[in-house]
Amino acid sequence: MLDGGKTFITGGRNADRVLVVCRTGTADADDRRGGLSILVVDNTSPGFTVGRTLEKIGLHAQDTVELSFSGVRVPVEDRLGEEGAAFGYLAHNLPQERLTIAVAAVAAAARAVELATGYANERRIFGAPLATFQNSKFVLAECATEVAAAQAMLDQALAAHDRGELDAVDAAKLKLFTTEVQARVVDRCLQLHGGYGYITEYPIARLYADARISRIYGGTSEVMKTIVAKSLDLAR
């Protein structure tokens, strides 16, 4: 019998079946992550309700909703995996999830540089292309350098993942670095657009709005720093 709610569920509006992490056993003081299981719930189940679609700053193409469960009966055959083993399953996939976010972050940052470069070449200020001003050159040079560094780190992580060697710490470092690069680069490239960068018909504005979630979902930047810090030989 499943009771409770879930918030910030991407794809919840369109899903026919959802995987729900829920508590099926008592939490142990020495293992707070124990007692969690994954249940597969059909969207036609009595007591299962898809709530409102949440209005987001960015990523408007995907739905994000609230889900609620009120006395939803789930047969034992719809448990996914072993009882109480949910956290292990989730943690196993976290490095790949964070790798995927990094791929999108680097791609978005690279696209921002392309857009800003094109705009700077076309936009004329005081009779000359914006690209001819030293500030424009320096900003784009800095952004291109950061994207190249992020791409190199991403390529290394992709190779490690292919070998089955991408661990939680390196994935955290990757997500932290690439999403912070994405934020800085997109912001600087929008600034080069001036007032037009704030107008949604310009692609850079959409990149700016979409970029903000990268440092939140899949584990916030603060969580990534915590993971990396635990891997260091620091005093406790």
UniProtKB/TrEMBL annotation:
<keyword id="KW-0274">FAD</keyword>
<dbReference type="InterPro" id="IPR009075">
    <property type="entry name" value="AcylCo_DH/oxidase_C"/>
</dbReference>
<dbReference type="InterPro" id="IPR050741">
    <property type="entry name" value="Acyl-CoA_dehydrogenase"/>
</dbReference>
<dbReference type="GO" id="GO:0005737">
    <property type="term" value="C:cytoplasm"/>
</dbReference>
<dbReference type="InterPro" id="IPR006091">
    <property type="entry name" value="Acyl-CoA_Oxase/DH_mid-dom"/>
</dbReference>
<dbReference type="InterPro" id="IPR046373">
    <property type="entry name" value="Acyl-CoA_Oxase/DH_mid-dom_sf"/>
</dbReference>
<comment type="function">
    <text>Catalyzes the dehydrogenation at the alpha-beta position of ACP-bound acyl chains. This results in the introduction of a double bond in the lipidic chain, which is further transferred to the epsilon-amino group of lysine residue in the mycobactin core by MbtK.</text>
</comment>
<feature type="domain" description="Acyl-CoA dehydrogenase/oxidase C-terminal">
    <location>
        <begin position="88"/>
        <end position="232"/>
    </location>
</feature>
<dbReference type="GO" id="GO:0003995">
    <property type="term" value="F:acyl-CoA dehydrogenase activity"/>
</dbReference>
<dbReference type="InterPro" id="IPR009100">
    <property type="entry name" value="AcylCoA_DH/oxidase_NM_dom_sf"/>
</dbReference>
<comment type="pathway">
    <text>Siderophore biosynthesis; mycobactin biosynthesis.</text>
</comment>
<dbReference type="InterPro" id="IPR036250">
    <property type="entry name" value="AcylCo_DH-like_C"/>
</dbReference>
<dbReference type="InterPro" id="IPR006089">
    <property type="entry name" value="Acyl-CoA_DH_CS"/>
</dbReference>
<dbReference type="Pfam" id="PF02770">
    <property type="entry name" value="Acyl-CoA_dh_M"/>
</dbReference>
<dbReference type="GO" id="GO:0050660">
    <property type="term" value="F:flavin adenine dinucleotide binding"/>
</dbReference>
<keyword id="KW-0285">Flavoprotein</keyword>
<comment type="similarity">
    <text>Belongs to the acyl-CoA dehydrogenase family.</text>
</comment>
<feature type="domain" description="Acyl-CoA oxidase/dehydrogenase middle">
    <location>
        <begin position="1"/>
        <end position="72"/>
    </location>
</feature>
<keyword id="KW-0560">Oxidoreductase</keyword>
<dbReference type="GO" id="GO:0033539">
    <property type="term" value="P:fatty acid beta-oxidation using acyl-CoA dehydrogenase"/>
</dbReference>
<protein>
    <recommendedName>
        <fullName>Acyl-[acyl-carrier-protein] dehydrogenase MbtN</fullName>
    </recommendedName>
</protein>
<dbReference type="Pfam" id="PF00441">
    <property type="entry name" value="Acyl-CoA_dh_1"/>
</dbReference>
